[in-house]
Amino acid sequence: MSVLSGKNIILGVTAGIAAYKSAFLIRLLIKKGAKVKVVMTPASKEFVTPLTLSTLSKNEVFSSFTSDEDDNVQWNNHVDIAEWGDLFIIAPATANTMSKMVSGTCDNLLLAVYLSAKCPVYFAPAMDLDMYQHPSTKESFKKLNDFGNFQIPAEIGELASGLSGMGRMAEPENIVSFVEKNILDQLPLKNKCILITAGPTYESIDPVRFIGNHSSGKMGYALAEAATHLGAQVKLISGPVSLQNFNEAIHVIHVNTAEEMYNASHKYFKTCDIAILSAAVADFTPKRVATQKIKKVEDSLAIELTKTKDILTSFGNIKDNQFLVGFALETENEIENAKTKLIKKKLDLIVLNSLNDKGAGFQHDTNKVTLISKDNKVTAYGVKPKSEVAHDILNYIIREIHV
Ligand code: CTP
Questions:
Q1: Other C-beta atoms lying within 10 Å of the C-beta of residue 392
Q2: Looking at residue 58, which CATH number applies to its domain?
Q3: How far, in Å, CA of 217 to CA of 240, rounded?
Q4: By CB count within 10 A, which of 100, 193, 239, 400 is most buried?
Q5: Does the Cβ of 312 fall within 6 Å of ligand 1?
Q6: In a domain, 294, yes or no
Q7: Share in percent of the chain as helix, strand, coil (round to 5)
Q8: pTM for this prediction
């Protein structure tokens, strides 16, 4: 899945012949799963029609501060457009528009959106080779880069003038790959490997029965999804759950028992940077698994249980530089019990769920957590969807490990 999936992208189109390529660029962005809104300079409409760009983007195209609808004048609010965008790509960016972006000139809607935009701005210059080499253009490039915008390098080739050289707008495919790579390079968990355990474990009694628990795995899967979005490589060791993993970037290892989860987790722990153990691992497992289905001949049945290996404790004992996170589900003396667990299992962070909190714990789509760090910092969060809780936990970890 592309990092552009689900992103709101404002595409700024200025008056260069390369504006015809904006149509292809929109199609590529939409194929990547992005939503696109186009803002054009008035002169760019000579090069490509708003109808084409509106049809491809499936959105209204904006080119002036107001639009006339049956004598009903509407204001195209540049601030609203700018706030909508997660990214602003100006392609093609002419020498004229770049110079105005440098000076803060604001004589069209595109420039007003640029000045209002708080999101990352990319610009893809397009002009003839001599214009491209001109010191004033070079000055524009320098200033725009200094302002924190991202320049998508122009390419060498045939130009509209008939000359050949540097100045062609980057091909739409190259614009898309540039933006994708740029986003990936800035993700806070880039190059980090995260091990996550999720769901329950099933401990067999006989060929048809097991001891399990109510864990749905939702919290662990939400963590895996969020970590992937933040650039991490995720190994998700999952107990039996009915959830689907739609994100192909997540490497899921399916297990059933506590023993299998222990072995699978240890395979990846040494090479991971962060381990988050959210699984509800069975603490006990039947000492013997009956080879045949147990018949109800007796009035009572005793099953002898033996302790499982504690994965989290074993990690605490062997960890080098890994940031180790455990979960604690408590019903009383929550903070004290969680702190004890944190110390006993040598954790860097513990995520406390209290069964007394509404909207927290097993099966819910929401959770309410308190994070306790090894230096005794206690941070409580409100009830939120598990996807947001996952981001809270990961953002906390990112701050702690200063990546
Ligand atoms: N855990 C583990 N391996 C186990 C048992 C638990 O990795 N065999 C991890 C869980 O994934 C979770 C944390 O340990 O991160 C929970 O700690 P634990 O002491 O098992 O909590 P409880 O089961 O709540 O313990 P207790 O019943 O003693 O409160």
A1: 18
A2: 3.40.50.1950
A3: 8
A4: 239
A5: yes
A6: no
A7: 35, 25, 40
A8: 0.81
